[in-house]
Design goal:
By secondary structure, the chain is of the alpha+beta class. It is built from six helices and 13 strands. The model has no long low-confidence stretch (mean pLDDT about 85).
């Protein structure tokens, strides 16, 4: 039982690409073999094994029927003592995309749904008729991390997510991101200094253009390796930064240094694309979203949802 208590919760949040039923089937099969191995010895002492075989076959059929035809086979449960919930991310995302000159070329708002298991919206859709209109969230080309605002870089684990159209809304402490200074340090080396402020939980994706390398930054930690949203080309990777802080009105300032010696294309069209995301996770922000409130009102007790209102902005520098 300890093995089941450990593995079942873990396998329930393994993402859309892993079928935990296969793993659990192997675990159950090994357990049954260990528990029933004594029957082999008993069968040698029996005059006929027909009766034993019939009993075991009936037990198998009855167990299978109970699993398929009764609520005992339902994979989720809201029992407070032994909960087995379906886990979801729900984000009200407002996205704005700026071009090299700083002009807005695209804006939209949507409700993103991220089920953490391979069943997706299969069971929950019966409680939310609007989810029948949900569309698979496609990768936005030429945007860092596919234009995703998910506040953990788990898109390779959860490749199936859905979106519904949502209304734009305002948030407290609106995010402000701007370029303070840009200067040329040598023939092929440029440095950019930025100012950034917003919510307590923010993240950034830095995606240098193809052939351009980020060599230094002002943070103490080493430059992180690129992360990728899926099976995409190498130049679509981005450096990920997660920034959390307490309540503060002081902007966070930092600089980034790029080496453009091997740049492919004209650097005047831009050297990198930066996406900044602010996540608002407090109730006074979340309950301003009509779409999230509507979702939570009809959420069954066997679903546990982490929710957020997110602002996504993409800039070209």
């Amino acid at each position: 039982m300890t093995a089941y208590e450990v593995f079942i919760p873990i396998m329930g949040r393994m993402g859309s690409e892993v079928n935990p039923d296969l793993f659990m089937a192997v675990l159950v099969t090994l357990s049954v073999i260990v528990v029933t191995c004594y029957i082999v010895s008993i069968s040698h002492a029996l005059h006929s094994v027909d009766g034993t075989t019939m009993v075991l076959a009936i037990m198998c059929v009855v167990s299978f029927g109970i699993t398929i035809q009764t609520p005992y086979g339902f994979p989720y449960g809201g029992n407070a003592i032994a909960p087995t919930p379906k886990r979801m991310f729900a984000q009200h995302v407002m996205s704005t995309f700026y071009n090299k000159s700083g002009a807005v070329w695209k804006e939209d708002a949507r409700l993103e749904l991220w089920p953490l298991d391979y069943l997706g919206l299969e069971h929950i859709i019966n409680y939310h008729p609007d989810f029948k209109k949900a569309e698979l969230l496609a990768c936005r080309s030429n945007t860092p991390y596919c234009g995703s605002a998910i506040y953990l870089p788990i898109k390779r684990m959860i490749r199936k997510s859905w979106s519904l159209h949502a209304a734009a809304m305002t948030t407290r402490d609106p995010m402000k991101f701007k370029l303070i200074q840009k200067w040329k340090r040598s023939e092929f080396v440029y440095r950019f200094k930025f100012s950034w402020m917003g919510s307590e939980k923010m993240q950034m994706h830095i995606q240098p253009k193809e052939g351009i390398v980020m060599t230094e930054w002002s943070l103490d930690s080493p430059i992180p390796d690129k992360i990728y949203p899926g099976d995409h080309d190498e130049h679509e990777g981005s450096h990920f930064l997660l920034y959390s802080h307490g309540y503060s009105k002081t902007p966070f300032e930092f600089w980034i240094q790029l080496d453009v010696s091997d740049a492919i294309g004209d650097i005047e069209d831009g050297m990198m694309t930066i996406a900044v995301i602010a996540n608002y996770v407090h109730d006074n922000d979340i309950y301003q979203s009509k779409e999230i409130v509507k979702y939570l009102k009809t959420e069954p007790d066997w679903v546990t949802t982490s929710r957020a209102v997110s602002k996504y902005e993409s800039f070209v520098f």
